[in-house]
Design brief:
The complex is a heterodimer of chains A (about 350) and B (about 80). Chain A folds into three domains: about 130 residues, Rossmann fold (3-Layer(aba) Sandwich); about 60 residues, Dna Ligase, domain 1 (2-Layer Sandwich), CATH 3.30.1490; about 120 residues, D-amino Acid Aminotransferase, Chain A, domain 1 (2-Layer Sandwich). In chain A, the strands form three sheets. Chain A has a six-stranded antiparallel beta sheet with strand order 13-12-9-10-11-14. In chain A, strands 3-2-1-4 form a four-stranded parallel beta sheet, with helices on one face. Chain A is built from eleven helices and 14 strands. Chain A is about 35% helix and about 25% strand. Chain B has one domain. Chain B contains three helices and three strands, in the order E-E-E-H-H-H. Chain B has a three-stranded antiparallel beta sheet, with no helix packed on it. Classes of the chains: A alpha+beta (about 350), B mainly alpha (about 80). Chains A and B meet through strand 10 and strand 11 of A and loops of B.
Chain lengths: ~350, ~80
């Protein structure tokens, strides 16, 4: 069978202790039976491991940070596209999704396909909007409030709207369990310094964290979904090991979210299962997660399906995955020549 | 007490609960009892089988047996309508 040749640009190549999804997404795409990919890596830092992983990434270009604005980013993508003729672009960082949604039409005009949520889908699922989201779509969520000062957290506790412990979260990443005001102050300052305002305060729901990786076709259909429980969690709260679950209620929950929101693209649902077996949605990440390769190994190659959807191709719906599949992450020291580092640092290409 | 139907129990005593992802290791007697429970044996039948096969009286066995059942419940390895 002739494979379709596609050039696919992918970010999130920071395969570090808090890994981006880029390399696992590439790994899935490279296993496609009907796509022969050329992978163009999009990197922000010189020491992201992805650019040096030549078995996965064919060529890497550095990008300006999204915070520098839409124009410099678009200019850089145009430059890369002139050389690479990108067919599909998959951004994998929460912090860049917004910019790429904004650029999706311009990219489309150049012939670069994306498959991203709409701006309103992206905006309404922000952690700070979770209560409204829950109400609008009939989804059980913990109470969450955006705050811009530590004093507001104290006020919320004083007014009885929140009690200890509570979660202090960054708008993009990071979450800390604060058991008292002193801890909350430390976490507020730390999250604010890293991710800026607002900082999110969230009610702490006692239970087990479970996750679902899923792909929506934008018309309410769930193309695939695989539930997982983290078995080993790093001090950054990242899964270092996880296992696929046989949990129809999590799938039902996911199908409900997809059908009422018409989510377009990859997503990760972060859920808490209480001892009473209730599921609470604590976060929606608007992209495939770093553990997506577990879904591939369990029988659902969601990265390939995402590429096909971006290309406007028909994708069948998965109903099966292997239960009890485990992933165990590991670290590995790559040895690289100084010349490679020099090239990426000085020319922005490798 | 009904053991969860979905539990995967290996001959080596490895027990996997696919709904939670939890796994457990049983010693040989624990495995034997869990299998008898799964087959729907009553307490009397299990006590009879164990006291015949091993050097233990019924009262001593049942003390440990009920502890074991409590543990299975606590670990949510039994059907929820129990």
């Amino acid at each position: 069978m002739n494979k379709q040749k596609l050039t696919i640009a992918i970010s999130g190549l920071n395969n570090v202790d808090s890994p981006g999804p880029g390399i696992p997404v590439i790994r899935g795409i490279r296993e496609s039976e009907d796509i022969e990919p050329r992978i163009v890596g999009l990197a922000y830092e010189n020491l992201e491991p992805g650019p040096y992983m030549h078995g996965y990434v064919d060529k890497t270009y550095k990008l300006p940070y999204p915070s520098e604005g839409v124009d410099p980013l678009m200019e850089r993508i145009r430059y890369i596209h002139e050389r690479e003729k990108i067919d599909v672009l998959i951004p994998n960082f929460d912090s860049e999704i917004f910019v790429f949604i904004k650029l999706a039409d311009k990219l489309g005009q150049l012939g670069i396909h994306t498959f991203l949520p709409t701006l309103s889908q992206f905006e309404e699922r922000h952690k700070s909007n979770l209560p409204q989201y829950g109400e609008k779509y009939d989804i059980r969520v913990p109470d969450s409030r955006p705050v811009t000062s530590f004093g507001e957290i104290e006020d919320l506790v004083r007014q009885g709207k929140f009690s200890w412990p509570l979660l202090v979260k960054g708008k993009f990443y990071d979450a800390y369990l604060a058991r008292n005001a002193e801890q909350a102050r430390i976490y507020f300052n730390s999250v604010n310094a890293k991710w800026g305002l607002p900082v999110i305060v969230q009610e702490f729901i006692k239970g087990t964290e479970v996750n679902v990786v899923a792909l929506g076709d934008g018309n309410g259909r769930t193309i695939g979904a695989v539930p997982m429980r983290k078995q080993y969690i790093t001090d950054k709260g990242k899964a270092w090991g996880g296992i696929t679950l046989d949990d129809p209620s999590m799938l039902e929950f996911t199908h409900h979210v997809m059908s009422v929101t018409h989510w377009r693209g990859g997503m990760e649902l972060e859920l808490i299962r209480t001892p009473q077996n209730e599921l609470y949605l604590i976060e929606i990440n608007p992209r495939l997660p770093a553990w997506v390769y577990l879904a591939v190994a369990a029988g659902q190659n969601l990265p390939v399906a995402l590429v096909k959807l971006a290309m406007g191709q028909d994708v069948p719906v998965w109903t099966h995955y292997d239960i009890g599949k485990i992933f165990i992450r590991y670290s590995y020291d790559m040895i690289c020549d100084l010349d490679a580092f020099r090239k990426l640092s000085t020319t922005g290409e490798l | 007490m009904k053991i969860k139907k979905s539990l995967a129990i290996s001959e080596t005593g490895f027990v996997f609960d696919p709904s939670t992802g939890d796994s457990y290791t049983l010693n040989p007697i624990g495995l034997e009892i869990l299998q008898m429970l799964r087959e729907g044996n009553s307490r009397e039948e299990i006590t009879g089988t164990v006291t015949q096969a091993y050097d233990v009286d019924a009262m001593t066995f049942e003390r440990y047996y009920f502890d074991f059942l409590g543990m299975l419940k606590q670990m949510q390895l039994v059907e929820t309508d129990e």
